[in-house]
Amino acid sequence: MRLLIIGDLYGQIGTASAIARSRGAKVAHVADIEAAMKALRDGQGADLVMIEVREDIEKLVTLLMRERFNLPVIACGLQNDKDSAVKAIRSGAKEYIPLPPNEELIAAVLEAITEETQSLVFSSAAMAKVIAMADQIAPSDASVMITGESGTGKEVIARYIHRKSKRASGTMISVNCAAIPENLLESELFGYEKGAFTGAASRRIGKFEEADGGTILLDEISEMDLRLQSKLLRVLQEREVDRIGGSKPIKVNIRVLATSNRNMQEVVKKGTFREDLYFRLNVIPLNIPSLRERKEDILPLAEHFIEKYSKANGVPVRKLSDASITKLTQYAWQGNVRELENTMHRSVLLANGSIIEPDAIALQGMPEQAVAASGGGSVSRQISNNTGGLVGRTVESVEQELILDTLSHCLGNRTHAANILGISIRTLRNKLKQYGEHGVAIPPPPTGAE
Ligand SMILES: Nc1ncnc2c1ncn2[C@@H]1O[C@H](COP(=O)(O)OP(=O)(O)OP(=O)(O)O)[C@@H](O)[C@H]1O
Ligand SMILES: [Mg+2]
Q1: Which of 120, 225, 331, 446 is deepest in the core (most CB within 10 A)?
Q2: Which 3 state secondary structure label does DSSP give 152?
Q3: H or E stretch including 215?
Q4: How does DSSP classify residue 446?
Q5: Which residues surround ligand 2, an ion (CB under 5 A)?
Q6: Which fold has domain 2-116?
Protein backbone atom coordinates (compact mmCIF):
# COMPACT_ATOMS: atom_id res chain seq x y z
CA MET A 1 0.00 0.00 0.00
CA ARG A 2 1.49 3.32 -1.10
CA LEU A 3 0.09 6.35 0.63
CA LEU A 4 0.56 9.87 -0.71
CA ILE A 5 -0.12 12.68 1.77
CA ILE A 6 -0.86 16.19 0.54
CA GLY A 7 -0.34 19.07 2.97
CA ASP A 8 0.88 18.83 6.55
CA LEU A 9 -2.45 17.62 7.96
CA TYR A 10 -2.64 20.53 10.36
CA GLY A 11 0.73 19.61 11.85
CA GLN A 12 -0.32 15.99 12.39
CA ILE A 13 1.54 14.54 9.45
CA GLY A 14 4.25 12.95 11.61
CA THR A 15 1.78 11.00 13.68
CA ALA A 16 -0.38 10.01 10.70
CA SER A 17 2.65 8.79 8.72
CA ALA A 18 3.97 6.82 11.66
CA ILE A 19 0.63 5.03 12.09
CA ALA A 20 0.40 4.25 8.38
CA ARG A 21 4.00 2.99 8.29
CA SER A 22 3.45 0.80 11.32
CA ARG A 23 0.64 -0.84 9.32
CA GLY A 24 2.93 -1.59 6.42
CA ALA A 25 2.18 1.39 4.16
CA LYS A 26 4.86 3.24 2.22
CA VAL A 27 4.32 6.91 2.85
CA ALA A 28 5.28 9.85 0.62
CA HIS A 29 4.56 13.50 1.32
CA VAL A 30 4.07 16.52 -0.93
CA ALA A 31 3.18 20.13 -0.12
CA ASP A 32 0.24 20.71 -2.44
CA ILE A 33 -1.94 19.42 -5.27
CA GLU A 34 0.46 20.60 -8.00
CA ALA A 35 3.32 18.69 -6.37
CA ALA A 36 1.11 15.62 -6.00
CA MET A 37 0.19 15.65 -9.69
CA LYS A 38 3.83 16.08 -10.63
CA ALA A 39 4.85 13.13 -8.46
CA LEU A 40 2.18 10.95 -10.05
CA ARG A 41 3.11 12.01 -13.59
CA ASP A 42 6.73 11.25 -12.76
CA GLY A 43 5.74 7.68 -12.08
CA GLN A 44 5.68 7.79 -8.31
CA GLY A 45 2.70 5.54 -7.84
CA ALA A 46 0.15 5.67 -5.03
CA ASP A 47 -2.77 3.51 -3.94
CA LEU A 48 -4.38 6.09 -1.71
CA VAL A 49 -4.22 9.86 -1.29
CA MET A 50 -4.75 11.69 1.99
CA ILE A 51 -5.34 15.39 1.77
CA GLU A 52 -6.08 18.22 4.16
CA VAL A 53 -9.64 19.31 3.94
CA ARG A 54 -8.70 22.99 3.43
CA GLU A 55 -7.04 22.11 0.11
CA ASP A 56 -9.14 22.20 -3.06
CA ILE A 57 -10.33 18.58 -3.02
CA GLU A 58 -12.67 18.99 -5.97
CA LYS A 59 -9.75 20.21 -8.05
CA LEU A 60 -7.67 17.21 -7.00
CA VAL A 61 -10.44 14.73 -7.78
CA THR A 62 -11.04 16.39 -11.17
CA LEU A 63 -7.33 16.33 -12.08
CA LEU A 64 -6.96 12.71 -11.01
CA MET A 65 -9.94 11.75 -13.10
CA ARG A 66 -8.87 13.79 -16.10
CA GLU A 67 -5.40 12.25 -16.07
CA ARG A 68 -6.83 8.83 -15.27
CA PHE A 69 -5.10 8.24 -11.97
CA ASN A 70 -7.59 5.94 -10.38
CA LEU A 71 -7.02 6.61 -6.67
CA PRO A 72 -9.30 6.94 -3.69
CA VAL A 73 -9.00 10.29 -1.92
CA ILE A 74 -9.36 10.52 1.86
CA ALA A 75 -9.89 13.96 3.38
CA CYS A 76 -8.45 14.82 6.81
CA GLY A 77 -9.71 17.69 8.92
CA LEU A 78 -10.14 18.90 12.45
CA GLN A 79 -12.52 16.90 14.55
CA ASN A 80 -15.17 19.56 15.03
CA ASP A 81 -15.20 20.69 11.42
CA LYS A 82 -18.42 19.05 10.21
CA ASP A 83 -19.12 21.39 7.31
CA SER A 84 -15.74 20.71 5.75
CA ALA A 85 -16.30 16.98 6.11
CA VAL A 86 -19.60 17.17 4.25
CA LYS A 87 -18.05 19.40 1.60
CA ALA A 88 -15.09 17.03 1.18
CA ILE A 89 -17.32 14.05 0.59
CA ARG A 90 -19.43 16.04 -1.86
CA SER A 91 -16.25 17.05 -3.70
CA GLY A 92 -15.44 13.41 -4.28
CA ALA A 93 -13.47 12.30 -1.22
CA LYS A 94 -14.19 8.71 -0.32
CA GLU A 95 -13.85 9.10 3.44
CA TYR A 96 -13.26 11.79 6.01
CA ILE A 97 -10.83 11.17 8.84
CA PRO A 98 -10.91 13.55 11.79
CA LEU A 99 -7.62 14.78 13.26
CA PRO A 100 -5.69 14.27 15.45
CA PRO A 101 -5.26 10.89 13.80
CA ASN A 102 -6.76 7.98 15.58
CA GLU A 103 -4.68 4.84 15.18
CA GLU A 104 -7.65 2.50 14.83
CA LEU A 105 -9.38 4.67 12.26
CA ILE A 106 -6.38 5.05 9.98
CA ALA A 107 -5.65 1.34 10.26
CA ALA A 108 -9.28 0.56 9.40
CA VAL A 109 -9.20 2.75 6.30
CA LEU A 110 -5.94 1.21 5.09
CA GLU A 111 -7.30 -2.24 5.74
CA ALA A 112 -10.56 -1.55 3.93
CA ILE A 113 -8.73 -0.27 0.87
CA THR A 114 -6.33 -3.23 0.89
CA GLU A 115 -9.12 -5.70 1.50
CA GLU A 116 -11.12 -4.28 -1.37
CA THR A 117 -8.37 -5.38 -3.72
CA GLN A 118 -7.53 -8.60 -1.92
CA SER A 119 -10.52 -10.70 -1.04
CA LEU A 120 -10.81 -13.91 -2.98
CA VAL A 121 -13.70 -16.05 -1.80
CA PHE A 122 -14.44 -19.49 -3.19
CA SER A 123 -15.31 -23.03 -2.20
CA SER A 124 -15.96 -24.76 -5.53
CA ALA A 125 -13.62 -27.39 -6.92
CA ALA A 126 -13.57 -25.55 -10.26
CA MET A 127 -12.22 -22.42 -8.63
CA ALA A 128 -9.84 -24.38 -6.41
CA LYS A 129 -8.31 -25.74 -9.61
CA VAL A 130 -7.82 -22.25 -11.01
CA ILE A 131 -6.23 -21.05 -7.76
CA ALA A 132 -3.93 -24.08 -7.62
CA MET A 133 -2.76 -23.28 -11.13
CA ALA A 134 -2.32 -19.60 -10.19
CA ASP A 135 -0.25 -20.64 -7.15
CA GLN A 136 1.93 -22.79 -9.31
CA ILE A 137 2.68 -20.18 -11.97
CA ALA A 138 2.77 -17.08 -9.75
CA PRO A 139 6.49 -17.24 -8.87
CA SER A 140 7.63 -17.39 -12.49
CA ASP A 141 7.90 -14.29 -14.65
CA ALA A 142 5.85 -15.79 -17.46
CA SER A 143 3.04 -13.79 -19.02
CA VAL A 144 -0.44 -14.96 -18.13
CA MET A 145 -3.58 -14.59 -20.20
CA ILE A 146 -6.67 -14.61 -17.98
CA THR A 147 -9.95 -15.13 -19.77
CA GLY A 148 -13.52 -15.48 -18.59
CA GLU A 149 -16.93 -13.86 -18.90
CA SER A 150 -17.41 -10.34 -17.64
CA GLY A 151 -17.52 -10.10 -13.85
CA THR A 152 -16.04 -13.54 -13.13
CA GLY A 153 -13.10 -12.12 -11.18
CA LYS A 154 -10.29 -11.88 -13.74
CA GLU A 155 -8.80 -8.83 -12.08
CA VAL A 156 -9.13 -10.47 -8.67
CA ILE A 157 -7.07 -13.43 -9.93
CA ALA A 158 -4.51 -11.13 -11.53
CA ARG A 159 -3.99 -9.36 -8.19
CA TYR A 160 -3.72 -12.71 -6.46
CA ILE A 161 -0.97 -13.81 -8.87
CA HIS A 162 0.93 -10.60 -8.22
CA ARG A 163 0.64 -11.01 -4.45
CA LYS A 164 1.97 -14.56 -4.67
CA SER A 165 4.80 -13.64 -7.01
CA LYS A 166 8.39 -12.65 -6.30
CA ARG A 167 7.32 -9.17 -7.28
CA ALA A 168 4.78 -8.81 -4.48
CA SER A 169 6.72 -6.01 -2.83
CA GLY A 170 6.76 -4.13 -6.15
CA THR A 171 3.73 -2.37 -7.51
CA MET A 172 0.93 -3.72 -9.61
CA ILE A 173 -0.34 -1.30 -12.21
CA SER A 174 -3.57 -1.96 -14.01
CA VAL A 175 -4.52 -0.36 -17.32
CA ASN A 176 -7.92 -0.84 -18.86
CA CYS A 177 -7.30 -0.92 -22.60
CA ALA A 178 -11.01 -0.63 -23.38
CA ALA A 179 -11.76 2.34 -21.15
CA ILE A 180 -9.04 4.62 -22.47
CA PRO A 181 -9.54 6.25 -25.88
CA GLU A 182 -7.23 4.77 -28.50
CA ASN A 183 -5.17 7.88 -29.06
CA LEU A 184 -4.53 8.28 -25.33
CA LEU A 185 -3.65 4.66 -24.58
CA GLU A 186 -0.25 4.95 -26.20
CA SER A 187 0.83 7.93 -24.09
CA GLU A 188 -0.69 6.31 -21.05
CA LEU A 189 1.38 3.15 -21.53
CA PHE A 190 4.59 4.56 -22.94
CA GLY A 191 4.65 8.05 -21.44
CA TYR A 192 6.00 11.10 -23.22
CA GLU A 193 8.60 13.81 -23.05
CA LYS A 194 7.72 17.46 -22.60
CA GLY A 195 6.77 18.95 -25.98
CA ALA A 196 6.39 15.55 -27.68
CA PHE A 197 3.04 16.72 -29.05
CA THR A 198 0.68 19.64 -28.61
CA GLY A 199 -0.57 19.51 -25.06
CA ALA A 200 2.43 17.60 -23.65
CA ALA A 201 3.17 20.40 -21.22
CA SER A 202 5.32 18.31 -18.94
CA ARG A 203 7.00 14.94 -19.03
CA ARG A 204 4.83 12.01 -18.06
CA ILE A 205 6.09 8.57 -17.12
CA GLY A 206 4.12 5.77 -18.73
CA LYS A 207 2.55 2.80 -16.99
CA PHE A 208 5.20 0.36 -18.18
CA GLU A 209 7.89 2.40 -16.45
CA GLU A 210 5.72 2.91 -13.39
CA ALA A 211 5.38 -0.87 -13.10
CA ASP A 212 9.16 -1.35 -13.19
CA GLY A 213 10.08 -4.06 -10.71
CA GLY A 214 6.45 -5.11 -10.46
CA THR A 215 3.54 -6.30 -12.57
CA ILE A 216 1.43 -4.62 -15.21
CA LEU A 217 -2.11 -5.80 -15.85
CA LEU A 218 -3.39 -5.06 -19.34
CA ASP A 219 -7.11 -5.34 -18.86
CA GLU A 220 -9.32 -6.15 -21.87
CA ILE A 221 -6.32 -6.49 -24.11
CA SER A 222 -8.41 -7.58 -27.11
CA GLU A 223 -9.50 -3.94 -27.44
CA MET A 224 -5.99 -2.64 -28.12
CA ASP A 225 -5.52 -1.43 -31.69
CA LEU A 226 -3.12 -3.17 -34.04
CA ARG A 227 -0.49 -0.43 -34.13
CA LEU A 228 -0.17 -0.42 -30.35
CA GLN A 229 -0.12 -4.21 -30.38
CA SER A 230 3.13 -4.15 -32.34
CA LYS A 231 4.62 -1.67 -29.89
CA LEU A 232 3.57 -3.95 -27.04
CA LEU A 233 5.14 -6.92 -28.77
CA ARG A 234 8.42 -5.03 -28.83
CA VAL A 235 8.14 -4.31 -25.11
CA LEU A 236 7.65 -8.01 -24.45
CA GLN A 237 10.54 -9.04 -26.68
CA GLU A 238 13.08 -6.38 -25.79
CA ARG A 239 11.91 -5.47 -22.30
CA GLU A 240 12.32 -1.80 -23.12
CA VAL A 241 10.00 1.10 -23.89
CA ASP A 242 10.27 4.24 -25.97
CA ARG A 243 8.64 7.30 -24.48
CA ILE A 244 6.82 9.32 -27.12
CA GLY A 245 9.28 12.01 -28.19
CA GLY A 246 12.06 10.29 -26.25
CA SER A 247 15.53 9.84 -27.65
CA LYS A 248 16.51 6.44 -26.29
CA PRO A 249 14.77 3.27 -25.14
CA ILE A 250 14.39 2.67 -21.41
CA LYS A 251 14.84 -0.79 -19.88
CA VAL A 252 11.90 -2.05 -17.86
CA ASN A 253 11.69 -5.07 -15.61
CA ILE A 254 8.03 -6.03 -15.70
CA ARG A 255 5.76 -9.00 -15.69
CA VAL A 256 2.75 -8.77 -17.94
CA LEU A 257 -0.68 -10.16 -17.11
CA ALA A 258 -3.52 -9.68 -19.56
CA THR A 259 -7.25 -10.26 -19.37
CA SER A 260 -10.01 -10.59 -21.89
CA ASN A 261 -13.66 -11.55 -21.84
CA ARG A 262 -13.55 -12.36 -25.53
CA ASN A 263 -12.50 -15.59 -27.14
CA MET A 264 -8.93 -14.65 -28.07
CA GLN A 265 -8.56 -17.33 -30.71
CA GLU A 266 -11.55 -15.89 -32.53
CA VAL A 267 -10.21 -12.36 -32.28
CA VAL A 268 -6.91 -13.60 -33.74
CA LYS A 269 -8.75 -15.40 -36.53
CA LYS A 270 -10.68 -12.25 -37.34
CA GLY A 271 -7.41 -10.42 -37.75
CA THR A 272 -7.97 -7.77 -35.08
CA PHE A 273 -5.36 -9.27 -32.76
CA ARG A 274 -1.81 -10.21 -33.72
CA GLU A 275 -1.18 -13.91 -33.50
CA ASP A 276 2.48 -13.50 -32.45
CA LEU A 277 1.42 -11.21 -29.61
CA TYR A 278 -1.26 -13.66 -28.56
CA PHE A 279 1.31 -16.48 -28.33
CA ARG A 280 3.63 -14.29 -26.28
CA LEU A 281 0.90 -13.37 -23.83
CA ASN A 282 -0.72 -16.76 -23.71
CA VAL A 283 2.34 -18.51 -22.23
CA ILE A 284 0.05 -19.53 -19.40
CA PRO A 285 -3.69 -19.47 -20.08
CA LEU A 286 -6.06 -19.26 -17.13
CA ASN A 287 -9.77 -19.49 -17.71
CA ILE A 288 -12.11 -18.38 -14.94
CA PRO A 289 -15.35 -20.36 -15.01
CA SER A 290 -18.64 -18.48 -14.97
CA LEU A 291 -20.58 -18.41 -11.71
CA ARG A 292 -23.15 -20.79 -13.24
CA GLU A 293 -20.39 -23.36 -13.57
CA ARG A 294 -19.43 -23.11 -9.89
CA LYS A 295 -22.65 -22.82 -7.96
CA GLU A 296 -20.94 -23.78 -4.70
CA ASP A 297 -19.37 -20.32 -4.71
CA ILE A 298 -22.67 -18.43 -4.80
CA LEU A 299 -23.49 -18.70 -1.11
CA PRO A 300 -20.03 -17.98 0.36
CA LEU A 301 -19.69 -15.01 -2.01
CA ALA A 302 -23.16 -13.73 -1.12
CA GLU A 303 -22.32 -13.92 2.59
CA HIS A 304 -19.01 -12.19 1.99
CA PHE A 305 -20.72 -9.29 0.21
CA ILE A 306 -23.45 -9.05 2.85
CA GLU A 307 -20.78 -8.65 5.51
CA LYS A 308 -18.80 -6.16 3.43
CA TYR A 309 -21.74 -3.87 2.66
CA SER A 310 -23.37 -4.19 6.06
CA LYS A 311 -20.16 -2.98 7.67
CA ALA A 312 -19.73 -0.22 5.13
CA ASN A 313 -23.27 1.00 5.72
CA GLY A 314 -23.24 0.56 9.48
CA VAL A 315 -26.11 -1.94 9.54
CA PRO A 316 -26.12 -5.30 11.34
CA VAL A 317 -24.86 -8.31 9.35
CA ARG A 318 -28.02 -10.30 8.54
CA LYS A 319 -28.38 -13.92 7.56
CA LEU A 320 -30.12 -15.17 4.43
CA SER A 321 -33.39 -17.08 4.85
CA ASP A 322 -33.63 -20.53 3.28
CA ALA A 323 -35.94 -19.18 0.58
CA SER A 324 -33.38 -16.47 -0.21
CA ILE A 325 -30.64 -19.06 -0.52
CA THR A 326 -32.77 -21.02 -2.98
CA LYS A 327 -33.51 -17.86 -4.96
CA LEU A 328 -29.80 -17.03 -5.21
CA THR A 329 -28.65 -20.50 -6.16
CA GLN A 330 -31.33 -20.94 -8.83
CA TYR A 331 -30.54 -17.73 -10.64
CA ALA A 332 -28.46 -17.70 -13.82
CA TRP A 333 -25.99 -14.88 -12.86
CA GLN A 334 -25.15 -13.85 -16.38
CA GLY A 335 -23.28 -10.88 -14.90
CA ASN A 336 -21.35 -13.33 -12.69
CA VAL A 337 -19.75 -12.24 -9.40
CA ARG A 338 -20.17 -8.56 -10.16
CA GLU A 339 -23.94 -8.99 -10.53
CA LEU A 340 -24.05 -11.00 -7.31
CA GLU A 341 -22.08 -8.28 -5.52
CA ASN A 342 -24.42 -5.53 -6.73
CA THR A 343 -27.46 -7.61 -5.83
CA MET A 344 -26.22 -8.26 -2.30
CA HIS A 345 -25.31 -4.60 -1.88
CA ARG A 346 -28.91 -3.71 -2.71
CA SER A 347 -30.27 -6.42 -0.44
CA VAL A 348 -28.32 -5.06 2.50
CA LEU A 349 -29.94 -1.68 1.93
CA LEU A 350 -33.42 -3.04 1.28
CA ALA A 351 -33.73 -5.69 3.98
CA ASN A 352 -35.90 -5.12 7.00
CA GLY A 353 -35.95 -7.22 10.14
CA SER A 354 -33.29 -9.63 11.23
CA ILE A 355 -33.10 -11.88 8.16
CA ILE A 356 -32.73 -11.20 4.45
CA GLU A 357 -35.92 -12.48 2.83
CA PRO A 358 -36.35 -13.08 -0.93
CA ASP A 359 -38.30 -9.84 -1.45
CA ALA A 360 -35.14 -7.90 -0.60
CA ILE A 361 -33.26 -9.74 -3.33
CA ALA A 362 -34.11 -7.99 -6.55
CA LEU A 363 -32.96 -9.90 -9.59
CA GLN A 364 -32.92 -8.39 -13.05
CA GLY A 365 -32.57 -11.29 -15.41
CA MET A 366 -34.17 -14.67 -15.74
CA PRO A 367 -33.86 -17.71 -13.50
CA GLU A 368 -31.56 -20.37 -14.83
CA GLN A 369 -34.26 -22.66 -16.22
CA ALA A 370 -35.72 -19.85 -18.30
CA VAL A 371 -32.29 -19.01 -19.69
CA ALA A 372 -31.69 -22.65 -20.56
CA ALA A 373 -35.12 -22.88 -22.20
CA SER A 374 -34.42 -19.81 -24.32
CA GLY A 375 -31.30 -21.50 -25.61
CA GLY A 376 -28.61 -20.06 -23.33
CA GLY A 377 -28.09 -16.55 -24.55
CA SER A 378 -25.13 -14.49 -23.52
CA VAL A 379 -25.45 -11.08 -22.00
CA SER A 380 -24.20 -9.48 -25.19
CA ARG A 381 -26.87 -11.24 -27.19
CA GLN A 382 -29.53 -9.98 -24.84
CA ILE A 383 -28.24 -6.47 -25.17
CA SER A 384 -28.11 -6.56 -28.94
CA ASN A 385 -31.62 -8.00 -29.05
CA ASN A 386 -32.76 -5.19 -26.86
CA THR A 387 -31.12 -2.58 -29.00
CA GLY A 388 -32.84 -3.96 -32.05
CA GLY A 389 -36.13 -3.68 -30.19
CA LEU A 390 -35.48 -0.08 -29.25
CA VAL A 391 -35.27 1.28 -32.76
CA GLY A 392 -38.38 3.25 -33.57
CA ARG A 393 -38.94 4.39 -30.00
CA THR A 394 -38.34 7.87 -28.64
CA VAL A 395 -35.58 8.58 -26.14
CA GLU A 396 -38.25 9.87 -23.81
CA SER A 397 -40.25 6.64 -23.76
CA VAL A 398 -37.16 4.48 -23.32
CA GLU A 399 -36.01 6.76 -20.51
CA GLN A 400 -39.37 6.46 -18.79
CA GLU A 401 -39.29 2.70 -19.01
CA LEU A 402 -35.71 2.56 -17.73
CA ILE A 403 -36.52 4.81 -14.79
CA LEU A 404 -39.68 2.95 -13.80
CA ASP A 405 -38.05 -0.47 -14.18
CA THR A 406 -35.10 0.60 -12.08
CA LEU A 407 -37.38 2.04 -9.45
CA SER A 408 -39.41 -1.14 -9.14
CA HIS A 409 -36.17 -3.12 -9.15
CA CYS A 410 -35.19 -1.06 -6.09
CA LEU A 411 -38.59 -1.75 -4.56
CA GLY A 412 -39.48 1.93 -4.78
CA ASN A 413 -36.39 3.21 -3.02
CA ARG A 414 -35.76 6.59 -4.72
CA THR A 415 -32.29 7.18 -3.37
CA HIS A 416 -31.03 3.87 -4.53
CA ALA A 417 -32.71 4.04 -7.93
CA ALA A 418 -31.16 7.46 -8.54
CA ASN A 419 -27.76 6.01 -7.66
CA ILE A 420 -28.12 3.18 -10.13
CA LEU A 421 -29.45 5.48 -12.84
CA GLY A 422 -26.60 7.92 -12.29
CA ILE A 423 -28.93 10.89 -11.84
CA SER A 424 -29.62 13.08 -8.85
CA ILE A 425 -32.46 12.23 -6.56
CA ARG A 426 -34.00 15.60 -7.44
CA THR A 427 -33.98 14.79 -11.17
CA LEU A 428 -35.56 11.44 -10.40
CA ARG A 429 -38.28 13.04 -8.29
CA ASN A 430 -39.03 15.60 -11.02
CA LYS A 431 -39.32 12.88 -13.65
CA LEU A 432 -41.62 10.81 -11.43
CA LYS A 433 -43.77 13.85 -10.78
CA GLN A 434 -44.12 14.40 -14.54
CA TYR A 435 -45.03 10.77 -15.14
CA GLY A 436 -47.55 10.91 -12.29
CA GLU A 437 -49.17 13.98 -13.84
CA HIS A 438 -49.65 11.96 -17.01
CA GLY A 439 -51.42 9.24 -15.08
CA VAL A 440 -48.54 6.74 -15.03
CA ALA A 441 -48.47 4.39 -12.02
CA ILE A 442 -45.34 4.97 -9.94
CA PRO A 443 -43.97 2.30 -7.55
CA PRO A 444 -44.52 3.66 -4.02
CA PRO A 445 -41.55 4.18 -1.67
CA PRO A 446 -40.88 1.24 0.68
CA THR A 447 -42.72 1.58 3.98
CA GLY A 448 -40.69 3.31 6.62
CA ALA A 449 -38.24 4.72 4.09
CA GLU A 450 -37.78 8.28 2.89
N1 LIG B 1 -13.63 -14.78 -5.82
C2 LIG B 1 -14.02 -13.55 -5.47
N3 LIG B 1 -14.04 -13.19 -4.17
C4 LIG B 1 -14.43 -11.95 -3.81
N5 LIG B 1 -14.82 -11.00 -4.66
C6 LIG B 1 -14.81 -11.30 -5.98
C7 LIG B 1 -14.40 -12.58 -6.44
N8 LIG B 1 -14.51 -12.60 -7.80
C9 LIG B 1 -14.95 -11.38 -8.15
N10 LIG B 1 -15.13 -10.58 -7.07
C11 LIG B 1 -15.65 -9.21 -7.08
O12 LIG B 1 -16.52 -9.08 -8.19
C13 LIG B 1 -16.29 -7.89 -8.92
C14 LIG B 1 -15.86 -8.24 -10.33
O15 LIG B 1 -14.58 -8.84 -10.32
P16 LIG B 1 -13.45 -8.47 -11.40
O17 LIG B 1 -13.41 -7.01 -11.62
O18 LIG B 1 -12.19 -9.14 -11.01
O19 LIG B 1 -14.09 -9.18 -12.67
P20 LIG B 1 -13.62 -9.18 -14.18
O21 LIG B 1 -13.67 -10.57 -14.63
O22 LIG B 1 -12.31 -8.47 -14.28
O23 LIG B 1 -14.79 -8.34 -14.88
P24 LIG B 1 -14.75 -7.52 -16.26
O25 LIG B 1 -14.64 -8.51 -17.35
O26 LIG B 1 -16.07 -6.84 -16.28
O27 LIG B 1 -13.59 -6.59 -16.18
C28 LIG B 1 -15.24 -7.13 -8.14
O29 LIG B 1 -15.85 -6.19 -7.31
C30 LIG B 1 -14.54 -8.20 -7.34
O31 LIG B 1 -14.01 -7.68 -6.15
MG1 LIG C 1 -11.80 -6.67 -15.26
Answers
A1: 331
A2: coil
A3: strand 215-219
A4: P
A5: 155
A6: Rossmann fold (3.40.50)
Q: Where are the domains of the chain?
A: 2-116, 125-289, 295-437
Least confident of 173-182, 253-262, 277-286: 173-182
Would the CATH topology of 2-116 be identical to that of 125-289? yes
148 Cβ below 6 A of ligand 1: yes
The answer to whether the CB of 153 is under 6 A from ligand 1 is: yes
150 Cα–ligand 1 center, Å: 8
pLDDT confidence tier of residue 378, bands split at 50, 70 and 90: very low
Closest C-alpha to 414, from 384, 445, 436? 445
Assess whether the C-beta atom of 412 lies below 6 angstroms from ligand 1: no
Cα 41 to Cα 63: distance, rounded to the nearest angstrom: 11
Give alpha helix (H) positions in 120-225. 125-137, 154-163, 182-190, 207-210
What number does CATH give the domain 125-289?
Answer: 3.40.50.300
Q: Determine the straight-line distance between the first and last CA of the chain, rounded to whole angstroms.
A: 39
Distance 344 CA to ligand 1 centre (A): 14
Ligand at minimal distance from the CA of 149 is 1
Ligand nearest to the CA of 152: 1
Ligand 1 centroid–CA 209 distance in Å is 26
Is the shortest distance between the CB of 72 and ligand 1 below 6 Å?
Answer: no
In the reported structure, the alpha carbon of residue 178 is separated from the centroid of ligand 2 by a whole-number distance in angstroms of 10
Task: Identify which of 338, 378, 379 to mutate to test ligand 1's pocket (most ligand atoms within 8 A of the CB).
Answer: 338
CB count in 10 Å sphere of residue 282 = 17
CA distance 93 to 87: 9
- pLDDT digits 0-9 by tens, 16-69: 889 889 888 889 999 999 999 999 988 888 889 999 988 999 999 999 988 878
Q: Cis omega before residue 100 (within 30°)? A: yes
Pocket-testing residue among 114, 120, 154, 156, ligand 1, by greatest number of atoms within 8 A of Cβ: 156
Q: Which of 87-96, 167-176, 272-281 has the highest mean pLDDT?
A: 272-281
The string of pLDDT tens digits covering residues 386-407 is: 344 677 778 888 899 899 988 8
Specify the CATH number of the domain 295-437: 1.10.8.60
Give me the torsion for CA of 270, 384, 147, 295, rounded to 10°: -150
